[in-house]
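New to this. Look over this protein:
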Amino acid sequence: MLPDVRDRLPGMAPKSASMKGFYRQKKSTKSTASKNVSTKKSPNLPMPYDSDITQPAALISHGSLDLKDSYKEDEQILGRFDMNMAYGPCLGMSRQARWERALKLGLNPPEEIESILKRGKVGSVCLWEGRV
C-alpha cells in the first residue's frame, strides 16, 4: 500500500479522522430565563391607505424636501394610495389605470380614490413619476 501524500509533503494539514475535528462549531448558550420570554411577530398585512400608522419620512434631496406640505387634501389621499403597495406597483401607469387594475385583481381599492380621480382636478401620474 502507498503512504499517504499528506505524510510526505511539508505544510499540509495532518490527516484527521473527520472534518468536524478541524472545523469546530461554537454554539451560543442562552440562559433558561430568556426562554420564558415570548415575542409575538406582527402579521405582515398591507397597510390600508388611510392608516394612522406613521408613514415613511419624505425623501430629501439637495437639502430640501422633495414632497411639499402644501398639497391639497385630495393630493394627500392620492399620495397615500400611491405609497400603499397593496394595490400593486404604481410606476409606468396612471393612477386611474392602477385603480382599475387593482379592482380587476380583486384588491378592493377604495372607492374614494375613484371619485377623486373622476373629478379630474388632481394629477393623473403617481407620486413617484419622474423621481425614480
